[in-house]
Specification:
Blueprint: H1 6-17, E1 22-25, H2 29-36, H3 47-57, E2 60-63, H4 66-72, E3 75-78, H5 93-102, E4 110-114, H6 122-133, E5 140-144, H7 154-159, E6 164-167, H8 171-180, H9 182-186, E7 191-194, H10 196-227, H11 231-239, H12 260-273, H13 277-304, E8 313-317, H14 332-342, E9 346-350, H15 355-361, E10 366-367, H16 371-375, E11 380-383, H17 388-391, H18 395-401, E12 406-409, H19 416-421, E13 425-428
Parallel strand pairs: 1-2, 3-4, 4-5, 6-7, 8-9, 8-11, 9-10, 11-12, 12-13
This protein binds uridine-5'-diphosphate-xylopyranose (UDX).
Uridine-5'-diphosphate-xylopyranose binds at residues 148-151, 207, 210, 214, 248-250, 252, 254-257, 259-260, 321-322.
Length: 434
């Protein structure tokens, strides 16, 4: 496993649990030491147990030396990060660095399998560059096998995926990957064998489809807010249409995290690069609708505070980009908290899991270790991440500590009747003023 970040570490532990011998390499010695002790450097349910089991069985090892991996493995999974750059293109520098380091070490026939998210056409370029560098030359095969892991469900999504996508050139690579994933294939996981380009595109397309659904539902939410229609009931109606289905229809502050925003903007950049302006426009609008949710949340907060944020005490409940995660990358909740702070509000943030990460990303905000402390003296409480802890909040108890019982529900988590009965002024994205 080349790269032991979220994707590489999870995939390594899961493959080891299937009985394979896995050596994972990363440039970060601290991360490697932690993983080698059987602990994950991030929050992922079930992963610590798998890591500990793999390490103690001897099947799972970690290191920083690429030579060990290059000389001992038959299959090399590429799991390096491909973060977005400012113009929407992906930063592939870690990938090309790895290719340049790995290529000269490949002396025996082997299969290099990309898992990282990349623009279409990258796999073919990786193949050509590796073959040019490797002593094994044309005996180095390249495949692409994207993952669809959701943070917080990484282990289950790896061991019981909804599909395996194998982008391959030729039968041998296909058979090799099917053999490697044999326990999953035998358990009935659908396998789609295809070409390299389709495999590369399948990850980006799946994420963009999800992003598109969320932006579409948020566009309906704005219409509901303006016309008095009920977004909750509307979503129920839509979800009962078997062609539409109920998933990824939760309205609110919109999507964030390391994948959906990156892949949506990546498609804009690819559309432009490929000379397909209509494609670029579609995904640009999905991104714009998503950003708009943050802007209108800040505007609504300002309106609730009487038009002025400066020196007002505001509580933000939620910093993670979604419940069940400690990740704050492109988190809508933390973004809104930061914007309110920039407008002069005294913002106190509470999150059940992401406080440490949020503090690193936004050290200028205040943080509390529990809801009641975060809400003490507050003039406006914003609920911005969909944690159950917030859904289950007792409005009477919270009402006793705030300065003004005023709440903005950015995830449609709170029961309006219950909160209004407890004396709260409640506004929710997607709901007209009651
Ligand atoms: C996503 C994909 O689901 C996964 O298949 C891929 O491999 C990586 O990207 P992840 O980023 O972990 O996974 O989060 P996901 O559960 O998809 O949620 C993404 C964002 O959308 C979150 O900010 C979430 O709050 C938001 N969301 C999700 C909504 O706003 N509404 C919804 O209905 C669903």
């Amino acid at each position: 496993m080349l790269g032991a970040g979220y994707l590489g570490a999870t995939h390594a532990a899961c493959l080891a649990s299937l009985g394979l011998r896995v050596h994972a390499v990363d440039v970060d010695a601290g991360r490697v030491a932690m993983l080698a002790s059987g602990r994950a450097p991030f929050h992922e349910p079930g992963l610590d147990a798998l890591l500990a089991e793999g390490v103690s069985s001897g099947r799972l090892t970690f290191g920083t030396d690429l030579h060990v991996a290059a000389e001992t493995a038959d299959v090399h999974f590429v799991c390096v990060g491909t973060p977005p750059s400012a113009d929407g293109h992906l930063d592939l520098s870690a990938l090309w660095q790895l290719v340049d380091d790995l290529g000269p070490l490949l002396r025996e026939p082997c299969l290099v399998v990309g898992k990282s998210t990349v623009p279409v056409g990258t796999a073919a370029r990786v193949r050509d560059r590796l073959r040019g560098l490797a002593p094994a030359g044309g005996d180095v095969a390249v495949a692409w096998n994207p993952e669809f892991l959701r943070e917080g469900h990484g282990v289950a999504d790896s061991l019981r995926p909804e599909r395996l996508v194998l982008g391959v050139e030729g039968r041998h690579a296909d058979q090799q990957l099917r053999a490697l994933y044999h326990p999953l294939v035998a358990a009935g996981v659908p396998v789609v064998s295809t070409d390299l380009q389709t495999a590369e595109l399948s990850k980006v397309s799946a994420n963009a489809m999800l992003a598109g659904r969320i932006s579409m539902v948020n566009a309906f939410a704005e219409v509901c807010e303006t016309t008095g229609a009920d977004i909750g009931d509307l979503v129920t109606v839509l979800g009962l249409d078997s062609r539409i289905g109920p998933d990824f229809l939760s309205p609110g502050l919109g999507f964030g995290g390391s994948c959906l925003p990156k892949d949506t903007r990546g498609l804009v950049a690819q559309g432009e690069d490929l000379g397909l302006p209509c494609v670029a426009r579609l995904w640009r609008q999905v991104d714009a609708v998503n950003q708009h949710q943050r802007e209108r949340t800040v505007a609504l907060a300002e309106e609730l505070l009487g038009g002025r944020c400066a020196d007002r005490r505001v509580t933000v409940l939620g910093a993670a980009f979604k419940a069940g995660s400690d990740d704050v990358r492109d988190s809508p909740a933390l973004d809104v908290a930061g914007r309110l702070h920039d407008l002069g509000a005294a913002v106190c943030v509470y999150d059940p899991a992401a406080t440490a990460a949020a503090r690193r990303a936004r050290p200028d905000l205040h943080y509390a270790l529990d809801v009641l402390t975060a809400c003490r003296g507050s003039e406006l409480v914003l609920v911005l991440t969909d944690w159950d802890e917030f859904r289950l909040l007792d409005p009477v108890a919270v009402g006793e500590v705030v300065a003004v019982p005023r709440v903005l529900d950015g995830r449609l988590l709170l029961d309006p009747d219950k909160w209004q009965r407890a004396g709260w002024q409640l506004r929710a994205l997607g709901r007209a003023i009651g």
